[in-house]
Structure formats: structure tokens, C-alpha cells
Recover the amino acids of this structure.
């Protein structure tokens, strides 16, 4: 049955004398592309001759072979690429026009008085892009639209002179033009719904009372084009209609197989002569599915899904007295156009067809017998009600059109081209090579781009999205997910745009999957265009792991994300940047299998991202580890992750890891491999008779699979499996005076009677014309004296002009046999000094390609001279050998190239030797080198007849490197592991290029502390290994960050002595700075020297001048950038901001902009702090200011006679500010506790024991002290703290709670520091303030994540976590609890508001709306007390009046942090629980 998606049966027409099936129902209005204001359309003004405002295109469109970046929509049924002249200059004329025109219905249309509407838009919406599907009419098109222009004329009327009619006409037309395009092609759809055309022409305005009507023009015109610089002439044009009847037929027929739908190819970037119409179906037969694409057979085709309800759904549907009375009439398909004119024929008479009633006849159709060849040879085809789908066979994966063996590693090759502007310098990339290698078993994807020019090589390091495509295609799949290749197969288009911040540079990435090559390698071409930020040479780029969510729609997957990366360079130090990535991946899907569940979203996790540019080799590398899973799926802990999902299994790279219960797993060799799963080896399906190749086909083994290749003279038939004879005669290979006779796998050329020759050259002369051999020979004897060019091969011909069977090269001494066309016969070449082959022997008469048999014809009869025996097909070895030997035009083998040696049967000789290098090795039947058999020149070769043992892990590792080069060489500069005779790792490994050596364990893992530089004696690897020292751990943590084992460029690598201790003198290899260190590796003050200055003697004491200090890193970086900017930085350029003591200011900004972020003491960006708002982020210093001497004692001096005291943190001290009622008593303010070298941030008070608690950001500790005079501080917690900020005391439960904003955690402990516990470590970005309501046992905290700030709550034991408020929040720094109202209150430095809300999220109210920069807050007796960074003081706000009532500004001006209330006794009601709000 054929159904519309709307559920209506389509009528079918069965021809009485044939089995043709005809769908005769035209499309309905609901089948048109969505239009109207609800679809985002613009509306053209009413009138008789209106033209739209310019419609600027996001990307230009090719129309014919010209590029246009803007369009205009006109009342009179046209779309133009130029602003239109007055209608009288074109509306009554035929084609061609003077200007570019797309004309779905060019006529004199008038929308005045509300008679219709005209809508238009350009869109990138996936649902619209997916409907522009051109493959039905253009099966070979490689087209996926990036943009679509939709223009709709709805219920428009013809112009009518007021004097000629008594009233407006009731005839209205509705039609649509859809222009889809990408960077190369454009296609146009014309849509005419059933009942949509009710007038078919219009009267000329100047008809002078002559009763004429001009039919509408439908078609295309290029407009005038320029020639001879200053002259212009008519451009090409194309007409669809010719008269009124052909206009009437527009909605009754179509060139797509669907009445009313017309498709045309309208432009191409490279070459385009004229419009090409679609051609679908056989003559006289319409099938909605009649080509190769997997699209529905229904009226609800993928191209024409019913439009959603919109503002045009209620449009009137006027009757048409002139419309045909039978809209379901069957109309046959017309012939192809000739000479720019396409006129569909008139409808046939009803007697030609036997019509079936709607509910009487249905048609069942089997698609797979016809379309099986569209599936992969490792797939099967399944029929469905609306079409067919391809499915990969068990053991293979893909989309059915392309299938790969499961578990096998995958290779990708392709080219990179385009122009990339670095800074202001454009750099061309001219088809440079890209190669990728993906270990599917654990999701590792390695991408290498070679021959990358240096400036763009450094600048492209952050553009890891180039390699991320391959990670997505072949990611490690977690349960309920699937990698991209299973969806896209090998043919897709990925379009990505990268926008860099803060420079706003834009880079376009277009990656096109071209299919699988002969070796099952994916071919992907990449085009880069746009600009990228400049990166200094030698820079190091690091990117943190991240997650990205992909949205899936029919035929497209999209994602948008923001990435951050760090750049470290000698000149600039550490910098942080970001970019936004927007991408879509379009592909062809199959929608007929309704049993499959459509994907909606999946999450890809990129756990490790490594980027590097190798200047010496000009190679850009990306290494990314990828996992794909449903969104939100996170393992609860590493111990619960099965090794298959974690990628930590030890299965072979050509094996699948199959998870079992718990931590158990099983290794199973990939499809096409056999072994124990730890070591797997390819199965040669060809040698073992396991191939599916049929007659006249040759089997070619591939890793994990095989390929069938038709023998010479044959090609694959309709089913894509069977080899059928090629009819060479169809290409007219013979002379014009000869006849061609096709044979099985060959053909013959015979001169006609009265002509003489070999069939390729025939003449009536008695003198024989030159033969092919003689012409070949004479063309090479091009010297003026008739002598050949020096060293050139000159073919030898016999007396009859034929090639001599034995040919020899006079210069090289090589000889070989040839066939009648002079083509070398496989396996017959002999080197100089050896006996040539007997070319007359029958066994050697089988030629490589027997396609021609020559005949000579005398005056009265034609005598056959000879007929060669049929040849055997070339073997894999012979193909390989001949591909090398025949690359030289003169017949030379390429100098230095390895030429494989084949035996008499064409099989690889077990022992292969390289003629130039002298190396020899054993090979298997596929010519693959057997591990451990290679011998250098001058040494005895291996016995290749001995049985081969399985490869070890070392040999697999070694061979995976050695076989990456096309000729079998290891990649230049790559590390190749060394294995012993038993295949085990040699205990001492050395890098051939770098000269480094090191010891390894049995798994090949480097042993710590054993690496030696070039020129030094290597370690004794047989000595037992001692534990790593702190220096060695520090050093190795840097060295092992690169997958290849190299230290990262630009990173400081500490130097350790032979005992593993820090060398007294340390130097940075990139910057040239040197300094002395103590036993812990800490720099000794005053010892640092810059590049070019002799380092100090670290064995002597170094005096430090008290009045001097060395220039800090921040100051050096700032000075170098000022010099880089020419001494005059622009306001928007970045300069590091340094404190007076030389430390980095906690807040860093780009010049005078508001693009700011927080940094730590080393200038590294604190993640999640970037702000584009007017308000800068609330950043905290992590280094204490310089110590001022003499140092005061760190003991407590409490205020006297104070019942209520505010305690505030101010850098290296805690201050006490007594209250007099609710007023601040500044006269009694004093320092409670001096803490030199500290940065006190969070502060809280325990009223039961009269103790103050605080966090120290500099020492990374949590501390407390009694409020008694002379009391000294004690440290409670000093481990595993990074950035402890907010602090709260639960007086009732005797607990402390704190937030650590660097690892983004909330923890708790007993008041003495014992019983430490993590409450939350997920879904936090920048937690800051925390409070506890002891009476209810509730925690509240703020998270000022710049992307999604919020306030959350939970119970004190970490249960019942929920978001209290997230809307309308900016920088919620301060948090407190109003015990009188039971509300949580916060002060926001972003919104400038002080607000309160009930714990359930209700009752939100604003207390004050114009704060300055609040940081911390506490509530007491209807007043809020908060520390303010703008005023550097304590500010008081009345809850009742919402007014500022008081302020306190300390004498020493610096930022104030936490604030708390200390009381002489615990209070009930108002402050029964003391809270810290930070």
C-alpha cells in the first residue's frame, strides 16, 4: 500500500497494457514548505509592482556559474539576484531577461486591496534543510544544503484594469519557490499545490483594447553577461513552459515523479552551462520512489512532510471554473528538454489507463532486488512498506551503506586545503595530507596534519575540533549510545564555525566524508577558511577535558559548546582564551524502518585532549580520548566502571572488549581477526576461501575484511556483487572505418571491407598505415637527427608493425613480455644479467589485460593474425609490484622504492629484500612483514619457512609504528620500541631520533628516573628499581603528559641528581631563566637570573639586598607585552595587572573592557570565572602580601565591654567592630587577631565555646582561636585544601561546613577537625558563601558560576539537595538567614540587589536594589551588615526602610572579606544560630 503520512491512500493507475504504476494525486498545500509569519517569514508590501528589501544571504549562492550574496522577491512571481527595474521593462516580455531571474510564475500579479500575501525568508533550520533532498532527480549529486530561501505567493491575483471589469476576479494562485544551496551547488524547487493555479496568464497593460492574454513564464534567466571587458550580451536561459496548456500542466505533472513538484540544478561553482532539470522514472510512469535513495514511497515524502499549523492554514481556497475537473488524472512524464525549452506534453486521454478506485487496488513493491547494490557488501537489504534500508551484518557496524568490522582500529586519510589568516597574514593550505588513527576499543583518536607552514601550525593548535570529528565517529560507546559512524556511515558533511574570544576571529571548518577507499580507510577532505589568533612560536596549548551534547534530527546532528584553553609561551607566560564551536553534521539516513528508535541527544566526553605542533617536521598533532553516552550518565566512581567502558582493558587493538558482571570483561578478536583477544591476527579470507567473490572477480584481502574486484574487462552488475562483461564497443574504441565486436572480457576491431589496418587505424591505401607500436616508437624518437632521447625506453616493433613480444630497455637492461597493445605482462620482468622470459610459451601468454584482439583484412578477406589465450587476473603481489614499476614514464622502477618480489604464480616470495637498502624480511601471504624477521644489510637472512609464532605486545606495538608509512618505513621521528628475539620489550629502550634512552618494565612502561639525555651513559636496566623521589615524581608528571613520552613544549621540567634529589641549580629550557632551590625544590630568594646572564653559584650563600627585589613574573610579562604592542597598548589589549609587591592581581581584564576573569598566584586562570558583564568577578588573592616587620604576636586581643561584636576578615587580620544597639561603634574598633602571611576569607563564631573559626586562602588551612585575651591560633585542617572560602558553624550539632572553590566541593567536619566528610563534589562551579540553620538542620550555599549562578540547599547530612533560586541571579557573593521571617537573604554583586526568599522558593522580595559590591553579609535585629569591596568597609541596611543607615571604613584601606557576629552568650530567636555568610 502507498499511504500519505496524513493517512490518506494514494490512488494508483495501472496501465491496461503494462505493469506501470502511476501516482496521480498532486501535492496539497499542507505539503508545501512551512511559510507565514509564524515560520519567521517577512511579508512583501501590497501592490502591483513591489520589490522586497534586499535579502542578504549568510553565505552567497551560485546561480549558473556566478556568485550572488543578496536576493530580491518581487510581486510578479520572480526572485532576482539584482534590484528589479520597473515591471513594464520585463513583465510582458519572454525570456531571456536583462537581470538574473528565478521565475516560478512570471506574470503581472497584483496584491493590492488584500488580494493575497507574499512571504519570503532565508533559513538554516535543520527541519527545512532536510526537506531539500535532490538525490531522486540527481542520483550522483554530492549535495547537502546549508541554506534555504523560501518564497511563497499565497492566493495572489492577476492585475486587472478597473475600466475593464465590473469587479475583482475570484481567481487566485498559490505557488512556491525554494532555493537550496551549499558552497558549490544550488538547486531550485517549484511547488504548485492541487488547486493552486486558477489563472494561467495576464493581460499586457498596454494592449490597446486588443483582447490578448500572455501565458505566464516559468523558468530561469542568467541575465546579461559581460564579454570583451566592456561589452554585454544575453546570458543563458531556460524555459519550463511554452504556452497556456503547459502552464495548466504545472500542478498536474512534475519532473520529480510527484505532480506539482519541479526540481532543477541551477548553479555550480566550477562549471555550469545551463539549467538541468531532474529526471525521475521511466517514460509514462510515476513512482514516488524510483531511484537509488532510501526515501518514502508516500505522498508524505521526506521532502514534503506536512507543514505545521501556521498563520496561513486558514487561507481561503477559491474555486476555479477553469481548473481541470479531474485533479487525479494520470499524466505521463515528458521527454528531456532540447535547446533550452521544456514543454510537458498534454495529458493523455482517459482511455489510455485503467484507473483504480481509492480503496480497490493497492500495489506491493519489492525494492531490495533492485537496490541491493546500494548496500555495503557486509550488509543486507530489508524491504519496508515505504522503501528499503541497509543493515550491517553481525560483526560489522555502520549505517548499512558503509560497514566496518567491529573492534578493528580505523584509519582516516584525506587532504586539507583553504586559506587561514593568522593575525593579518593569510596562509594557503594546498591539499596537505591528513591522517588519523583511531583505536576503537578505547576511543583514542590520533590526528596528524603534515607539511603545515609554521605560522599557521602554532595558531591551529587550539583548533582540536578538526580531530574531534574522528573521535565522535568512532568514540568508545557506553551503554545505550552509539558512535557517529553508525549513523552517518562514510558519506557526510560536517560544517563547523569556531569563534575565538576575545579577538572575535572566525574559522570555518568543512569536512566531507567521501566514502571508504579500497583499504576500507575513511576518506575525509577538510577545507579551512577564516582567521585564527596568532600564537608565538614554541607556545604550549593545554585544553581541559570537557563534555559536549549532540542534538540529533533526521539527517543532521548539531552541537554548540564553549571551550577554554591555556597558552604558555616564553614571552607571554600563561594566558587563557576561549572559543565557541557551532557545528552540524548532515548525512543520509533511512527512515523506512519504523522499529528503530530515533536518537535525540547524546553526550560525548573528551577525557584527554593533547595538541602539539612539531616545528622540525611541520606536523600538527591532535590526540583525543572520546567516550559517548546518554546525556547525564556519569559513573559514580572509578571502581564501578568496567574496564571496557573506562578504556583500561588490555585487549588487543584489533579486539573488542566485552563487559561482564562487575569488573570482569572478555576480549574477543574483531570481525575478520582470530586469536585469544589479547593478540589477534588478520584472517586472509582470500587465501582461506572465505570470500564472497563470484565468477570473473578477484579477491583482495583487507585488514578485517576483503574486497571483490572485477577482472579486467568486467564490471559489477546491477546487484553490486556479480561481475558482468563490459561492452567496450559502446565507447567506440575502433577506427571510424572499422567495426567493433564485443567478446567476454575483451573486444575486437576489424577494418571494414576495402580498408587495411589493425582496426584502430584503417586506410584504403595499399601501403600499410603506421601501427600503434610504430606511432609509439616514432613519438619517442623526437630528436632532430632521428635519434632517441638519452635514456628513454623505445618500444621495438616487428615487420608488421606489432609490438615484439619481448621488450628490453637499452639503458637499464631490464626485459619483459608485452601483450598486443604493448602493455607489460605481469610476472615477466627480469633484471639485467638474467635470462629473459620465453614470451612465446603458452604459460606466459596470459597477459595482464587481454582486451583487444587485432585483425588484418586483405582485399577480399580478413585474416586473423593471432588471438591470445585468455589471461589470469593479476594477483595482489603483481598489482603491488606493477604499481611501483609503472610509475615512471620510461618504464624505470622509482629509484629507492621498494618493489615486492612475486613467484611464478604471482604470490609473494616469502623472503623479501629491498634492493636499495639491503634490508630483508619475511612476509605472510598478504605481503605483510612477519614480526622479528627483518635483518640489516650484510647479515644472514631469516629462514622464512619456519612457522610463525603469534606476535607479542611489543611486536604489535613496534609494527603498528613501522607499518604506518606506505612503503613500510617507520614514520620519521616516531619512537619505535625495540623487542628481543622472543618478542619481549628490551629492558633498555632508546629513541632513534632524539637519542634519549630509558628502562622499561615487561609491559614497555618507562621506569621512573631512568631516562638519560643523548650523549650520556644509559642506566643499567638490570638493577632493581628504587621508589621515585619527590623530584622524580615532579619531573615525570611533566614528561608523561605527551602521548609520545615527550615533555610538553614550554613546560618547566625540574632537574634531579642521580639520587633523585633536586639539583641545586634549576633552569627553564624555554625561557633561559635559572635559579637555586632548596631540598624541597623551592626557589631560594634572590637567586633567579634571566637569559644571557651567568647563573649564581648555588653552593654559596646569596645575600639579598633588603631594599631590592627581582622583577616578578607578572612584571616581566607586562613589560614584554608593552614592548610587543610598540609601547602603546590599545585600550582593548591585554596587559597583566600586577599588585605593588609584583604578584598577579586576583582580577585580570582585557585592557579597559569588562572581559575579566580570576587568576591564582601564578597567573593561571581560575575556571568558570570569565565574565562579560559590567561587573567584574569577585576574585580572591591566593598569595599573602609581603610581610611587614616587626611582626606582631599572633594572639587574640578581644574588645572590652562588648556584648555584640561584628568580626570581619581583612587580609592578614581579623577585626572586631562592636555594636551599640544596631549602630556601629567605630570608636571601639580594634584588631582582634593579626595573622601575618595569611589571607583570611571565611569567618564564623561558636557562641558556646567563645571561639572564632576562619579559612586561610594563602596557607590553605582551616583554623580557630579562643576569644580569650592572649589565646593563640590552632590549625584544624591543613591537607587537601585548595581554595577554602565560605565557612559556617553548626552550634547545635558541633560541626563546621566549608566550600572549596577550586575543586568545587562542600565538606564538613567536627569542630576539632576530625570526622572530615565530603558532602558534594558535583554540579558545582564556583561555590562561595555557605550558612547553616541549626534549628532546622539545613544548609544553604551560593554558586556564582558565570554561566548559571544559583542558590541551593540541603540537609546537614547532604540529603535533599535542591535549587532554591536560579532566575535573576548574577554574582551571589553574600548569604545570610533572617530568623525573624524564616527567609534566606543574599546580596548580589551582579544585580546590585539585596533579596530574600523563603526556603521553598516562594515569597521573593527585594530589600535594596542599588548596592555597590557586596561580598559577605550577616543579619541582626532587622538590619543587614555586609562588607563592600567598592567602599572597603562595612555597610548597614535597614530591612524596614530599605535604606543605608551606617558604615564603617577601617583606617587601613583594603578589601574586607567574611563577616560574623560574636556574642557574649548564645542568643535565642534572632541569632540562636550563628551563621557565616561569605
Amino acid at each position: 500500500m502507498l499511504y500519505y503520512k496524513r493517512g490518506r491512500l494514494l490512488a494508483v493507475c495501472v496501465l491496461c497494457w503494462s505493469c506501470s504504476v502511476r501516482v496521480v494525486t498532486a501535492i496539497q498545500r499542507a505539503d508545501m514548505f512551512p511559510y507565514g509569519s509564524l515560520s519567521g517569514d517577512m511579508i512583501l508590501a501590497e501592490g502591483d509592482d513591489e520589490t522586497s528589501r534586499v535579502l542578504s544571504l549568510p553565505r552567497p549562492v551560485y546561480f549558473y556559474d556566478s556568485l550572488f550574496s543578496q536576493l530580491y522577491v518581487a510581486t510578479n512571481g520572480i526572485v532576482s539576484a539584482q534590484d528589479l527595474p520597473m515591471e513594464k521593462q520585463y513583465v510582458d516580455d519572454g525570456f531571456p531577461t536583462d537581470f538574473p531571474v528565478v521565475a516560478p510564475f512570471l506574470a503581472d500579479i497584483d496584491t493590492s486591496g488584500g488580494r493575497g500575501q507574499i512571504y519570503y525568508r532565508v533559513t538554516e533550520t535543520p527541519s527545512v534543510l532536510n526537506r531539500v533532498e535532490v538525490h531522486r532527480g540527481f542520483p550522483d549529486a554530492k549535495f547537502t544544503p546549508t541554506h534555504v530561501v523560501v518564497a511563497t505567493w499565497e492566493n495572489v491575483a492577476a492585475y486587472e484594469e478597473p475600466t475593464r471589469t465590473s469587479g475583482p476576479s475570484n481567481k487566485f494562485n498559490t505557488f512556491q519557490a525554494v532555493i537550496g544551496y551549499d558552497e558549490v551547488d544550488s538547486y531550485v524547487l517549484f511547488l504548485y499545490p492541487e488547486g493552486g493555479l486558477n489563472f494561467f496568464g495576464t493581460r499586457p497593460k498596454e494592449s490597446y483594447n486588443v483582447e490578448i492574454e500572455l501565458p505566464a513564464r516559468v523558468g530561469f534567466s542568467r541575465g546579461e553577461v559581460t564579454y570583451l571587458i566592456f561589452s554585454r550580451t544575453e546570458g543563458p536561459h531556460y524555459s519550463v513552459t511554452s504556452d497556456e496548456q503547459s502552464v495548466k500542466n504545472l500542478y498536474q505533472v512534475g519532473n520529480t515523479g510527484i505532480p506539482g513538484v519541479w526540481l532543477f540544478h541551477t548553479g555550480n561553482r566550477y562549471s555550469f552551462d545551463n539549467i538541468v532539470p531532474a529526471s525521475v522514472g521511466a517514460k509514462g510512469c510515476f513512482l514516488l520512489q524510483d531511484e537509488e535513495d532510501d526515501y518514502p514511497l508516500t505522498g508524505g515524502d521526506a521532502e514534503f512532510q506536512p507543514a505545521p499549523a501556521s498563520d496561513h492554514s486558514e487561507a481561503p481556497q477559491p474555486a476555479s471554473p477553469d481548473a481541470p475537473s479531474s485533479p487525479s488524472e494520470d499524466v505521463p512524464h515528458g521527454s528531456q528538454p532540447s535547446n533550452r525549452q521544456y514543454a510537458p506534453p498534454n495529458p493523455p486521454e482517459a482511455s489510455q489507463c485503467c484507473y483504480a478506485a481509492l480503496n480497490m487496488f493497492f500495489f506491493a513493491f519489492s525494492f531490495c532486488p533492485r537496490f541491493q547494490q546500494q548496500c555495503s557488501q557486509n550488509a543486507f537489504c530489508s524491504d519496508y512498506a515505504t522503501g528499503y534500508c541497509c543493515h550491517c551484518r553481525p560483526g560489522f557496524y555502520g549505517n548499512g551503506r558503509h560497514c566496518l568490522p567491529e573492534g578493528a582500529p580505523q584509519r582516516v586519510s584525506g587532504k586539507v586545503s583553504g586559506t587561514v589568516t593568522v593575525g593579518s597574514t593569510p596562509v594557503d593550505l594546498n591539499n596537505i595530507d591528513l591522517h588519523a588513527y583511531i583505536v576503537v576499543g578505547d576511543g583514542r583518536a590520533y590526528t596528524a596534519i603534515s607539511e603545515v607552514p609554521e605560522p599557521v601550525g602554532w595558531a591551529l593548535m587550539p583548533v582540536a575540533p578538526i580531530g574531534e570529528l574522528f573521535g565522535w565517529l568512532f568514540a568508545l560507546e557506553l551503554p545505550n549510545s552509539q558512535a557517529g559512524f553508525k549513523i552517518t556511515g562514510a558519506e557526510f558533511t560536517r560544517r563547523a564555525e569556531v569563534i575565538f574570544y576575545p579577538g572575535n576571529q572566525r574559522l570555518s571548518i568543512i569536512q566531507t566524508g567521501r566514502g571508504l577507499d579500497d583499504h576500507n580507510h575513511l576518506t575525509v577532505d577538510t577545507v579551512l577558511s577564516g582567521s585564527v589568533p596568532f600564537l608565538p612560536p614554541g607556545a604550549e596549548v593545554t585544553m581541559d577535558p570537557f563534555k559536549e551534547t549532540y542534538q540529533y534530527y533526521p539527517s543532521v546532528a548539531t552541537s554548540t559548546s564553549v571551550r577554554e584553553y591555556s597558552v604558555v609561551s616564553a614571552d607571554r607566560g600563561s594566558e587563557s582564551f576561549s572559543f565557541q564551536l557551532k557545528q552540524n553534521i548532515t548525512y543520509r539516513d533511512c527512515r523506512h524502518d519504523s522499529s528503530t528508535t530515533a536518537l535525540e541527544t547524546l553526550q560525548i566526553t573528551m577525557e584527554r585532549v593533547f595538541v602539539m605542533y612539531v616545528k622540525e617536521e611541520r606536523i600538527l598533532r591532535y590526540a583525543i580520548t572520546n567516550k559517548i553516552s546518554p546525556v547525564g550518565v556519569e559513573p559514580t566512581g572509578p571502581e564501578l566502571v568496567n574496564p571496557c567502558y573506562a578504556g583500561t582493558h588490555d585487549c588487543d587493538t584489533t579486539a573488542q572488549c566485552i563487559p561482564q558482571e562487575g569488573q570482569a570483561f572478555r576480549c574477543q578478536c574483531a570481525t575478520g581477526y582470530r586469536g585469544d583477544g589479547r593478540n589477534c591476527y588478520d584472517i586472509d579470507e582470500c587465501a582461506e576461501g572465505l570470500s564472497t567473490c563470484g565468477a570473473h572477480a578477484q579477491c583482495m584481502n583487507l585488514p578485517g575484511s576483503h574486497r571483490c574486484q572485477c577482472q579486467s574487462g568486467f564490471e559489477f552488475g546491477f546487484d553490486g556483487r556479480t561481475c558482468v562483461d563490459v561492452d567496450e564497443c559502446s565507447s567506440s574504441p575502433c577506427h571510424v572505418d572499422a567495426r567493433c565486436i564485443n567478446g567476454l572480457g575483451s573486444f575486437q576491431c576489424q577494418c571494414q571491407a576495402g580498408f587495411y589496418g589493425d582496426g584502430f587505424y584503417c586506410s584504403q591505401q595499399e601501403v600499410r598505415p603506421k601501427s600503434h607500436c610504430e606511432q609509439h616508437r616514432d613519438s619517442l624518437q623526437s630528436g632532430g637527427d632521428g635519434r632517441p632521447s638519452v635514456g628513454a625506453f623505445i618500444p621495438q616493433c616487428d615487420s608488421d608493425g606489432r609490438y615484439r613480444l619481448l621488450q628490453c630497455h637499452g639503458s637499464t637492461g631490464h626485459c619483459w613480455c608485452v601483450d598486443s597493445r604493448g602493455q607489460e605482462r605481469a610476472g615477466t620482468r627480469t633484471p639485467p644479467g638474467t635470462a629473459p622470459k620465453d614470451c612465446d610459451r603458452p604459460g606466459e601468454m596470459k597477459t595482464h589485460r587481454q582486451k583487444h584482439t587485432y585483425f588484418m583484412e586483405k582485399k577480399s578477406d580478413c585474416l586473423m593474425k593471432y588471438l591470445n589465450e585468455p589471461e589470469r587476473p593479476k594477483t595482489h603481489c603483481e598489482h603491488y609490484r606493477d604499481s611501483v614499476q609503472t610509475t615512471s614514464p620510461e618504464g624505470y622502477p622509482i629509484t629507492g622504492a621498494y618493489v615486492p618480489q612475486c613467484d611464478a604464480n604471482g604470490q609473494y616470495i616469502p623472503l623479501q629484500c629491498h634492493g636499495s637498502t639491503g634490508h630483508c624480511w619475511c612476509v605472510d601471504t598478504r605481503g605483510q612483514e612477519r614480526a622479528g624477521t627483518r635483518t640489516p644489510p650484510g647479515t644472514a637472512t631469516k629462514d622464512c619457512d619456519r612457522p610463525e609464532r603469534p606476535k607479542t605486545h611489543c611486536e604489535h606495538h613496534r609494527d603498528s609504528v613501522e607499518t604506518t608509512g606506505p612503503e613500510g618505513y617507520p614514520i620519521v621521528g616516531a619512537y619505535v620500541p625495540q623487542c628481543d628475539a622472543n618478542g619481549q620489550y628490551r629492558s633498555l629502550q632508546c629513541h632513534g631520533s632524539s637519542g634519549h634512552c630509558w628502562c622499561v618494565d615487561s609491559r614497555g612502561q618507562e621506569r621512573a628516573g631512568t631516562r638519560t639525555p643523548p650523549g650520556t651513559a644509559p642506566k643499567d636496566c638490570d638493577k632493581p628499581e628504587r621508589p621515585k623521589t619527590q623530584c622524580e615524581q615532579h619531573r615525570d608528571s611533566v614528561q608523561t603528559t605527551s602521548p609520545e613520552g615527550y615533555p610538553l613544549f614550554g613546560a618547566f621540567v625540574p632537574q634531579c641528581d642521580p639520587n633523585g634529589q633536586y639539583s641545586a641549580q634549576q633552569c627553564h629550557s624555554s625561557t633561559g631563566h635559572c635559579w637555586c632551590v632548596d631540598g624541597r625544590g623551592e626557589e631560594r630568594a634572590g637567586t633567579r637570573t634571566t637569559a644571557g646572564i651567568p647563573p649564581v653559584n648555588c653552593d654559596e650563600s646569596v645575600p639579598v639586598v633588603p631594599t631590592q627585589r627581582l622583577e616578578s613574573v607578572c612584571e616581566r610579562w607586562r613589560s614584554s607585552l608593552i614592548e610587543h604592542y610598540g609601547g602603546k597598548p590599545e585600550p582593548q589589549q591585554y596587559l597583566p595587572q600586577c599588585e605593588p609587591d609584583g604578584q598577579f592581581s586576583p582580577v585580570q581584564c582585557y585592557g579597559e573592557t569588562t572581559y575579566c576573569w580570576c587568576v591564582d598566584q601564578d597567573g593561571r586562570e581560575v575556571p568558570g570565572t570569565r565574565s562579560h558583564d559590567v561587573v567584574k568577578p569577585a576574585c580572591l588573592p591566593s598569595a599573602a602580601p609581603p610581610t611587614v616587620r616587626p611582626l606582631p604576636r599572633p594572639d587574640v586581643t578581644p574588645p572590652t565591654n562588648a556584648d555584640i561584636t561584628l568580626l570581619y576578615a581583612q587580609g592578614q587580620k581579623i577585626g572586631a567592630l562592636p555594636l551599640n544597639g544596631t549602630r556601629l561603634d567605630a570608636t571601639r574598633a580594634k584588631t582582634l587577631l593579626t595573622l601575618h602571611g595569611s589571607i583570611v576569607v571565611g569567618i564564623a563564631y561558636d557562641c558556646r565555646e567563645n571561639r572564632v573559626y576562619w579559612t586561610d586562602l594563602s596557607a590553605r588551612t582551616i583554623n580557630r582561636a579562643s576569644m580569650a585575651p592572649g589565646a593563640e591560633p590552632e590549625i584544624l585542617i591543613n591537607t587537601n585544601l585548595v581554595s577554602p572560602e565560605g565557612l559556617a558553624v553548626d552550634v547545635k550539632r558541633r560541626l563546621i561546613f566549608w566550600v572549596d572553590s577550586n575543586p568545587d566541593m562542600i565538606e564538613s567536619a567536627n569542630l576539632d577537625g576530625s570526622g572530615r566528610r565530603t558532602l558534594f563534589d558535583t554540579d558545582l562551579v564556583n561555590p562561595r558563601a555557605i550558612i547553616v540553620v541549626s534549628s532546622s538542620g539545613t544548609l544553604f550555599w551560593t554558586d556564582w558560576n558565570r554561566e548559571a549562578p544559583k542558590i541551593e540547599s540541603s540537609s546537614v547530612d547532604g540529603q535533599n539537595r535542591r535549587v532554591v533560586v536560579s532566575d535573576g541571579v548574577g554574582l551571589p557573593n553574600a548569604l545570610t538567614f533572617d530568623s525573624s521571617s524564616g527567609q534566606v537573604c543574599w546580596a548580589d554583586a551582579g544585580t546590585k540587589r539585596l533579596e530574600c526568599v523563603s526556603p521553598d522558593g516562594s515569597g521573593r522580595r527585594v530589600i535594596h536594589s542599588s548596592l555597590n559590591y557586596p561580598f559577605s553579609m550577616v543579619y541582626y535585629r532587622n538590619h543587614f551588615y555586609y562588607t563592600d569591596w567598592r567602599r572597603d568597609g562595612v555597610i548597614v541596611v535597614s530591612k524596614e526602610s530599605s535604606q543605608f543607615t551606617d558604615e564603617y571604613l577601617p583606617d587601613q584601606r583594603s578589601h574586607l572579606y567574611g563577616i560574623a557576629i560574636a556574642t557574649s552568650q548564645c542568643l535565642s530567636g534572632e541569632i540562636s544560630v550563628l551563621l557565616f555568610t561569605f
